[in-house]
Amino acid sequence: MDPIYESITANKRWTYLFFFLYAILIGIIGYLIGIYIGSPLFGLIIAVIIFGIVLLVSYYGGQKMVTTMAGAHEISKQEEPYLYNTVEALSLAAGLPMPKLYMIKTDVPNAFAAGRNPENSSITVTTGLMERLDRLELEGVIAHEMAHIRNYDVLLATVAVVLAGTIIFLAYMARFSAYGGFRGRGQGGPAALIILIIFIILVVLAPLFAQLLKLAISRKREFLADATGADLTGYPEGLASALEKISAKQKSKSKIQNSALNGIYIINPAIGANIGKNVWSTHPPTEERVRRLREMEFIDQKTYTTPLNTDTTKYKSQTTHYNRKHVGDGYLVCDKCNGYYELQAGESPDDFASKCECGGKLEYHDSI
Amino acid sequence: MDVSYIILGILILIAFYMVYSYNRLITMRNMVGKSYSNIDTLLQKRFDLVPNLVSTVKGYMKHERELLESVTRARSDWMNASTIQENAGADNIATEALKSIFAVAENYPDLKANKNFLLLQEELVGIENKIAYARQRYNRTVLDLNNAIQQFPTNMMAQFFKFQTREFFEVESDQIREVPQVKMYDEEY
């Protein structure tokens, strides 16, 4: 069977499985809380309502939540004509509708796609990516993300990220309240016991969910997206060299690192912290991906498609500099009144007095 | 009795297959139509920008009249084009001419400082790229359709319902040679 079609069905199946497991988990917690307040049925009903809300929110609002979690903001064609045109070109090549575009202000290059189907999807890139890649490399990256959208990888990834995110959050809350419960009410008592059980379930399940997340966003999908992306541009070398550049520039502590989100980026941001290979191996090693791309042959390109007959491939945007708000110079934040000043192009923190008008001390942050 | 059931079963299977392959052919034909209209929209957008570009550039490029004329000519060729081949021909001339205009623009620092020109250039380069990809998509959908029309067993259905193979949007064309050569100036100029 067609590997892409197979992948689409598998992705939808995994999404249902996620919802199912999540329903069981919420049900158990609701039941336990119900016992705690004296009415298990009431607990279950509340759990069903909460599950319904989470289901709808993660399905319909997942794309927005993921991009917000990543700290991205939506951009228009006027702000980034170069990026917009590139993405539009590849959506034409893939025969998909134009996705929404988002950007993260950070020097670290990376990109991801989110959404529930090709009609409701988005592509997010970092400003660092825009600055480091030429048009062919950028096209390679965008084509890879387009492939994720077409294969419905985005549905699974987006839902998985939101569900895993809430579990991780709940586990955190449970841990917090468990400590409070033990200290506040002393030993014993059914209340503390129930909280303890919820705590154990969540603590056990949070990594399990993370594990599922890892399985769901599998290596096979990355290879498939690399291959279909390369087929879309007809130029595997563009993506290959982009992958090398991106993975070389991940930093040990970057703004985009987030254990729930790492897996959806084109290159896992955690590889900068040297844990990419074992703990979070959502992606195959970059060298392996690059090697496979470089071995690809596109015989048919010469016969019936000529991917690019223009010399615009090395072209880098010149207008973007007019439009892009300056990025990466950071902020001066006052520790007392919390006021801040955004550094403009060419300004450095040394140009300013270190005292705020209110008398507090100004500190430099690269983001707020 | 048994034999008639088997025959009936086979007939039902054939009927299902006919419906399936007919629908598949229709889907493919619609995809070809849609991807062709994408190219058409882009060509329209590009040629709408041509007069704009010519008037912006004219004041600066005094020695490149021929070049500017060739892009204007491509525009009128395209407006008169009726077949895919003529469309493709006009597209190819325009692509070559625009490429040359942007190459020559490198020699005019004043022009390169003109924000209007830069915006036009960004837009036109973007459209060029989109046309290239839309063309690729179109050619792939045409290939799929043509394969289905010519290969057994869908060819029987195609013949019965008179599906016709489509033309590719070719890139190579004799007309490209009509584009005037761009003079590259020496350092001292």
Describe the 3D structure.
The complex is a heterodimer of chains A (about 375) and B (about 190). By secondary structure, chain A is of the alpha+beta class. Chain A is built from 13 helices and seven strands. Chain A has two domains: about 1-315, no CATH class; about 330-365, no CATH class. Chain A has helices at about 5-35, 40-60, 60-70, 80-95, 125-130, 135-150, 155-185, 190-215, 220-235, 235-250, 285-295, 300-305, 320-325; strands at about 75, 100-105, 110-115, 120-125, 330-335, 340, 360-365. Chain A is globular and about 65 Å long. Chain B has a single domain, classed as de novo design (two linked rop proteins), CATH 1.20.1440.20. Chain B is built from six helices and no strands. The interface between A and B is medium-sized, with 29 and 34 residues.
List keywords for this structure.
heterodimer, A: 368 residues, alpha+beta, 2 domains, four-stranded mixed sheet, globular, B: 189 residues, mainly alpha, de novo design (two linked rop proteins), 6 helices, 75% helix, disordered C terminus
